[in-house]
Write a structure and sequence with these properties.
2 domains, alpha/beta
Length: 207
């Protein structure tokens, strides 16, 4: 029984130290899970690598001075999920990037929730009660911009998909398939006399 208790203690201790404590001017170069607590972060957390996920488990990031919560610049394949940002001028600032996914975050008392500048192929699905607006979108197109608590509207919707359903966003976030991958999938899934015609049609659309 004592050995079982020791094993459980070690497992709990390991899980307790597995999370990362966010801090000001933090530079993230690999995927992390932030610890569950309230942290005062007055300077932005910067994403400095591609293929990175930041997961918040009950993490609340507050600012005394405004500023920016997260800064993503010249990056691709970045996911930031389930973070609570409070009292920032800009919750998320994304520049010159693609496939940046901001999902399940809560933005409270921010001036602007998400600022996008020269961004494409990205998606948002947050809960936003920003004071001035949920989005500031400049020179950005082919993104999916949605909120959980209200509809999105603005001139930027002419070049971006606004108010998509959550299931559509999940599909949009999936890794893009190459023509060989799609060809293999079709050969395994599709049967019948029209298979070659269908394969040719799909692959032509991917070219």
């Amino acid at each position: 029984m004592a050995q079982v208790k020791l094993v459980l203690f070690l497992l709990l201790a390991t899980s307790a130290v597995a999370c990362v404590v966010p801090r000001e001017n933090m530079v993230i170069t690999e995927s992390v899970e932030f610890c569950s607590d309230v942290y005062y972060v007055n300077w932005p957390i910067r994403i400095a690598a591609d293929d990175v996920a930041v997961i918040c488990s009950g993490t609340v990031l507050k600012s005394w001075r405004g500023g920016t919560g997260f800064a993503v610049e010249n990056r691709q394949n970045v996911t930031i999920k389930d973070c609570h940002l409070v009292n920032h001028d800009i919750g998320f600032s994304v520049r010159n990037s693609s496939r940046v996914f901001l999902i399940g975050n809560h933005l409270v008392k921010t001036q602007v929730g998400v600022r996008l500048m020269n961004v494409s192929g990205s998606a948002t699905l947050n809960h936003d009660v920003s004071l001035l607006g949920a989005f500031d979108v400049q020179e950005s197109a082919h993104n999916v911009l949605s909120l959980k608590n209200k509809r999105v509207s603005g001139i930027f919707c002419a070049h971006n998909e606004c108010n998509a359903k959550e299931s559509a966003i999940e599909t949009f976030m999936r890794p893009k398939q190459t023509p060989p991958q799609m060809s293999l999938w079709l050969s395994e899934v599709v049967t019948g006399k029209s298979v070659e015609r269908l394969r040719a049609w799909v692959l032509a659309g991917l070219a």
